[in-house]
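Student: Hello, beginner here. Can you help me understand the protein record under this note? Any guidance would be welcome.
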Amino acid sequence: MTLAGSIWPGVAALLWLLAAAACGVVATWLWRLVERFGPAARALAVALAATGFWALGCGLLGQEAAITAMAESGRNLGWLFALYRLFAVDGRLASVQPVRPMLYALGFVELVQAFAHALFGAASADQAPLAAYAFQSLTLLHLLLQIGGLVLVHNLYVGARAETRLLLRWPAGALLTLWGFDLNYYTVAYLSHGMPEMLGALRSVAVLAAASTLAIGALTGRAQVNLRPSRAVTFQSLSLMLIGGYLIAMVALAQWLSWSGGNLAMSLQLGVVSAATVLGVAVIASARMRGWMRVMVAKHLFQHRYDYRSEWLRFTRTIAKPGGSDASLDQRVIRAVADMTDSPAGLLLTAGEGGRLELAARWQWPTAEVPGLALSAAQCRFFEQQGYVADLDELRAGRASAEATAAVPQWLRDEPRAWALVPLLHFEQLVGMIVLARPPHPRKLDWEDFDLLRVAGQQLASYLAEHAGQAALAEAGRFEDFNRRIAFVMHDIKNLASQLSLLARNAEQHSDNPEFQRDMMITLRNSSDKLHALLSRLSRYGSSAIETLQPVAADQIAARVAAQFQALHNVQLVEAAPCRVAAQADSLEQVLVHLVQNAIDASPAGAPVFVRVACEGLGGVIEVLDSGTGMSPEFIRTRLFKPFDSTKSGGFGIGAYEARELIRAMRGRLDVESCEGLGSRFTIHLPLYDAAELIDTLAAKRVA
């Protein structure tokens, strides 16, 4: 004897004893919870107690013992009585007339079985033919009881009201587990002419499952527990049932063939195997056959055609561009709807000029001939007002309304693969339409299809509208960047024009002064250089990008700017310490020119403007100080650096903004201190060129 063979009887006996204990505990509990199952509570407790007594006998004496067989009859009679009381839970004993006679008949069958077992059990010890006959007869009686009992369980649950089903499903599930397993057990026993030892031991597991089911049903508040397997599990379970049925049929057929013998048996075996192989290949290889099977199963097994949770998850995954797909949004929109109806292809029509629809994208439908004007504005208005999902097969058959027929263009009616037309509505406006191709297994669209396609169309319309809005914003951003560049250019030209205008006015009075002539030549040369530099740096404006930073003598830049304005206003360079900063000379001079010009504009005539350059630590400092009108803290915080907001008549309001952005691009900062009536101080902080690399290293370490 193998190790498994020596251990298995002990394991089986332990399982039986565990099942007996579970039945005893649950029976005691149910006896106390009379209010839980109403008039059937005590009957269920008695049935469980009888089942526990039978399980105890199986564990101690074995299933073949006479006492155990009698206990099994008592178990079945107890469950028949419990079933009778379950019909009384919602008062159906009076309305369902055939139930009581059938229960009596099954109870009589069980009594006959107990009597026959006692009679044949005593006589079969010495008579082998009688023993075989007795076995087959008793097994048939068992099968008759299980089949009849399962039919009654079905009628109990299906005929109950919806609110009563929440209560009845637990005892119905327990009976289905118990008698359903016994049905398979006695079927195999009848076909094999003997009790299957392994299945017999596993009956204890069925008893445990039945007791656990009733225990769950007895828990307070569990009436609302809703166990609904997913469609994937349902399909897999159905597949396993079909496979099991196929195996049982093959066992029965093999048994019959073994009895017939001869060449006929071999021929029939070969024929059965060939037919099964052909059928399996046909189902696996044919997409049409698989589609037909899905439709039939969904139609007859489920309350709704669609599993909305899984459909919506797949819908959002498709739109979200999973798996690195390079399909465009338009193609993903088509596929998201097509996957719901198993459509193999589709078209997307979107709104063009004048409210008409034009072809925007194809998905796996290159042969569809779509004219330039897919739908006219008048046809679009019908779908926009009605939200109509068109079943093109119904329309071709003449079963659609006249308005719907007129709204569908002729090219769609002539396209043989076109199956459905789904409008995409966003805030009651038609964004586009999706044309779906006919699935491999065509079917008639019903209300559930229309509702799902309509809601999916609204969701997709919002995606398309959002995408179009983002594209419009991006285009507007590009125009804004262009306008900003032009504004910067006009601002710089305006400053140069102001300088030249001042120079022209002063030339009328000081044209004979040689010193003024020298200053005038310097100013004209600088203006010309700035115009050329402005043209070369035009692409930089708007982003304030600084390509490279160079060592720039800030004291020399400040001296040059102060000399440039000296002929126009009293600009004094009060301190010019040697200071070499990391910057760009033209940009730094442009910032200084703007700050000095603003200081002059804010100062009264003759009031000096001071410029100071110094080195402080690892940075250089350039200050521009005036004693003009000054600014309030609120103005500095909310308006000073806001582009296109100017207090000057004819000003552009971008000078301070551009100055700050240029300084930031050179890795510096621009600080402002001001007091109304006293003046303002603008301070430029730039890193020294020799310390710029060290500052970058420290900043990188802080980020890391």
